[in-house]
Design brief:
By secondary structure, the chain is mainly alpha-helical. It is built from 6 helices and 3 strands. Helices cover about 70% and strands about 10% of the residues. It is globular and about 60 Å long.
Length: about 150
C-alpha cells in the first residue's frame, strides 16, 4: 500500500471515529434531556464535582472539564439556582471560591449516573470483552501514552 493510500485510509478512519463520537454524544444529550431534564454540560459538571473529594476550585473544575471558566461558571450558576450545587469560601485562600454538590445534587447525580451507565451499556452492547480490550489498545496506541493493562 502506498503512503498516499495509507493516508486516505487514516483519514477515513478518523472521519468514522468522529461520526461515531458525535452520534453517541448527541444520543446521550437527547437521553439526558428527555429522561432527566438536564444537559450534558450539567451532567459533566456534576460528575466532576461528584468525583472530587470535597469542594473544588472553579479553576480546577474548568481545567478538569476542558472548558473556559466562564462556561463552568454559567453551569454552576444554574446548578446553584436549582439547589444542586453550592459555592463555599475557601478556608485557606480568601480569594478562592469553591463549589460542591449539595445533598440533593449528589442524590440527583447518582440517579443520572446510573441511568447514563445503563444507556452507555446499551449503546456498546455489541462489544464483548475482547472487543473492548482491542479498542482500548488501539486508542492507547493513537494517544501514544504508556498505560496499564487493567483499564
Amino acid at each position: 500500500m502506498s503512503d498516499a493510500d495509507l493516508t486516505r485510509r487514516r483519514l477515513r478512519v478518523w472521519l468514522r471515529l468522529l461520526r461515531l463520537t458525535r452520534g453517541t454524544e448527541n444520543h446521550l444529550r437527547e437521553f439526558l434531556r428527555v429522561n432527566h431534564d438536564t444537559t450534558l454540560p450539567r451532567f459533566d459538571v456534576m460528575a466532576a464535582l461528584h468525583r472530587h473529594d470535597g469542594p473544588m476550585k472553579m479553576s480546577d473544575l474548568s481545567r478538569a472539564l476542558l472548558v473556559s471558566n466562564g462556561n463552568a461558571t454559567a453551569v454552576v450558576d444554574r446548578l446553584e439556582k436549582d439547589g444542586l450545587a453550592k459555592r463555599v469560601q475557601s478556608e485557606t485562600d480568601r480569594r478562592a471560591v469553591l463549589v460542591t454538590l449539595t445533598t440533593a445534587g449528589r442524590t440527583e447525580f447518582e440517579a443520572q449516573a446510573e441511568a447514563h451507565a445503563t444507556e452507555i451499556n446499551k449503546l456498546f452492547a455489541g462489544l464483548d470483552e475482547s472487543d473492548l480490550d482491542a479498542l482500548r489498545d488501539i486508542i492507547w496506541k493513537i494517544e501514544g501514552d504508556d498505560h496499564e493493562t487493567s483499564a
